[in-house]
């Protein structure tokens, strides 16, 4: 049997653990993780190279009910990720039944002709009866080539999941060199780390009205320290002091936590300068959304 390779989409409701799953397989944090909806905005490609296969993962925004142009844009991107996939991974939780929203999503998947794998995540939080009932309910849809129960946080069955996906890929070339883990730039990944901390530390509409752009990154002489300047964009003037915080405490904490992630990613010390700027109503303007989120079309 020859080398296998292909593109794999990871789809599912918000917060089922899609980014956590890919990060766990990669052995390195490349995608942001947040309990808040819409934390994933970009179709990031992560490349997992195994001895006999190369899996190119496309992480998608969580499926959710759209409430504004930004959320409609994200939902459109999620379904657009289906085009050109060799295998689709759908993630859910052990609800004990077929979740109503998953059932609606499955209507969009009926015309997908390539294999679909169901991953039931968070099995460490479910009873045996809940898991068995979930497996039976989803199997009855007839959509799935195979079902793999997993726990991303506990590492349960992750190797089985990866091998199952690899076996379903077609024979093909090695698209990326072994050392490549993502097709996104370092600046992009750094911006995602900063945005993750905004999601974790702020509330209400603030996380969904912010965008991050790295505008400068350069190693100092000797290569032991990296200077990073990033702009945090908010949609309204009233949101700027919330990001900055009383006496600058919020922006300092965002910077402190983000710097830890960036230093772990780069393996170097980082000087991080965060600047908060207002880009009025950018999350309601389709052109601004595409521009700030790094999309075409």
From TrEMBL:
Subcellular location: Cytoplasm; Cell membrane
Stretches the record annotates as G5: 150-152
Coiled-coil portions: none
G1 as annotated region, ranges: 12-19
Gene Ontology CC: cytosol; plasma membrane
Chief place where the protein resides: cytoplasm
Subunit structure as annotated in this protein's UniProt entry: Monomer.
Family the UniProt entry places it in: Belongs to the TRAFAC class TrmE-Era-EngA-EngB-Septin-like GTPase superfamily. Era GTPase family.
Protein name: GTPase Era
Organism from which the protein derives: uncultured Acetothermia bacterium
């Amino acid at each position: 049997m020859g080398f296998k390779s292909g593109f794999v989409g990871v789809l599912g409701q918000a917060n089922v653990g899609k980014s956590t799953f890919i990060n766990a397989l990669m052995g390195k944090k490349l995608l942001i993780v947040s309990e808040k909806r819409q934390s994933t905005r970009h179709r990031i490609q992560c490349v997992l190279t195994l001895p006999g296969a190369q899996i190119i993962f496309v992480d998608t925004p969580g499926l959710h009910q759209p409430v504004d142009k930004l959320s409609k844009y994200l939902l459109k991107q999620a379904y657009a990720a289906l085009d050109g996939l060799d295998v689709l991974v759908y993630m859910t939780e052990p609800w004990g039944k077929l979740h109503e929203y998953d059932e609606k999503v499955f209507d969009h998947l009926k015309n997908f002709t390539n294999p679909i794998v169901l991953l039931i995540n968070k099995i460490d939080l479910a009873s045996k009866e809940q898991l068995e009932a979930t497996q039976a309910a989803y199997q009855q849809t007839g959509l799935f080539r195979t079902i793999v129960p997993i726990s991303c946080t506990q590492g349960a069955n992750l190797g089985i999941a990866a091998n199952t996906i690899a076996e379903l890929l077609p024979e093909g070339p090695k698209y990326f060199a072994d050392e490549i883990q993502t097709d996104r730039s370092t600046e992009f990944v750094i911006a995602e780390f900063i945005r993750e901390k905004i999601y974790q530390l702020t509330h209400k509409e603030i996380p969904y009205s912010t965008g991050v752009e790295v505008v400068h990154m350069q190693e100092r002489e000797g290569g032991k320290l990296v200077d990073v300047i990033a702009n945090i964009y908010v949609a309204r003037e009233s949101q700027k002091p919330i990001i900055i915080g009383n006496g600058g405490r919020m922006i300092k904490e965002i910077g402190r936590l983000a710097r830890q992630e960036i230093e772990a990613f780069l393996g170097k010390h980082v000087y991080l300068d965060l600047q908060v700027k207002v880009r009025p109503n950018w999350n309601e303007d389709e052109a601004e959304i595409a521009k700030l989120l790094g999309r075409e079309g």
